[in-house]
Design brief:
Bound molecules: pyridoxal-5'-phosphate
Shape: globular
Number of helices: 16
Radius of gyration: 23 Å
Order of helices and strands: HHEHEHEHEHEEEEEHHHHEEEHHHHEHH
Strand order of the largest sheet: 1-9-8-5-4-2-3
Number of strands: 13
Amino acid sequence: MTRLALFGGPPIVPGPLPEYPSIGVEERLAVQRVVESGCLSAFHGSPGANFLGGVMVRAFEEAWCRRFGVSHAVSMNSATSGLIAAVGAAGIGPGDEVIVPPWTMSATVAAPLFYGAIPVFADIEADTFCLDPAAVRACITPRTRAILAVNLFGQPASLFALKEIARQHSLLLIEDNAQGPLAALDGRYAGTIGDIGVFSLNFHKHVHTGEGGMCVTNDDRLATRLQLIRNHAESIVEGLDVHSLVNMVGFNFRMTELSAAIGIEQLKKIDRHVERREALARALTAAIADLRGLVAPIVRQGARHVYYVWAIRVEESVVGVSRNLLSRALAAEGFVNATGYVRPLYLLPLFQQRIAIGGAGYPFTLAESVSYAKGICPVVERLHERELILYETCASDIDDRSTGLLCDALRKVYRHRDELRARGAEMAGRA
Ligand SMILES: Cc1ncc(COP(=O)(O)O)c(C=O)c1O
């Protein structure tokens, strides 16, 4: 039996896996055509036809609408921009509360702050890692205006339950679907169930344009407001049929023709890219099927999980080795990104010190009763501190050989758990 790489043995994955090669000749030719046209962006920040961008941007948005069955797709230069625009389009303002999960990329919880709104953290479900509807209910106050749910790791949140809560309390449901293109729940695409859905097209996503994002909605009014916030609303809104000036102050969140041209080609390949990640996840799950104490990803009933991240739980008492030691051993074998996800976001200095916009504590001064203390979301803290191991499926290219190596790494580390326990205790004693 070969030694663990952590203790000097040869690693199972001998070097970095190949780069994610999703850009092909089709994208290259599309970019070339745009460059040859001489028009790299056709947006104007003034009233008129070009307020909505050029031919590629519009074609990309139309293709996205067709693929996801929505009435409006509004491209952005990132999902971060899309999230800010979504909060703005929803009419959210200073002191309003937005319920968010503590496990997501920081942009989800930062977006409300730009409008002076207060992120309120609700805990997550221990098995799916997405917002727990019961925890969301417990966070609702008269100041709550929206639920910003994240389809984390490529799995839809409990979207219909959240939508029902939103309906009962007259809230908006915004879906951060950055990680979940083609994820679905009961036959509906994730991202299209809430009032607005936001997709990411950054380099690490299933399909990408380098940087980019897409907001989708079936609401004409919200679509216009998204378009305005994307492109200098204040100078354009006057001539349009927009009834409220709330948040009609815009940005430059516009996508270039180059990115849109790449996006059109990427969208044609989306099934293949998503299916490859699903196949990797299936193989990793099969590799741990008989390893007691490693709990495979749990897919919500009726859901399609598209595995931006393959995430499992370690039951330390069953395996007999701490999650941290297991993931160190896995990392040494070349199974990268193993330990946990982000720290629960309310523990960031931003929330602990309550300093966001300016130095006087705005907007937190508007909601001093909202707590960001350690312990407010015990499920996420337990998962973060002791249980989660993950593999980012979009971090590298995956062929059959790499898949096999990653599976072997998991099984090798598990096989050596007694040695790991013994030597881990020794290492801890020396530290
Ligand atoms: C859940 C989530 N939300 C938002 C973002 C931000 O996406 P972008 O990099 O396109 O701004 C990401 C990016 O990884 C994400 O994973």
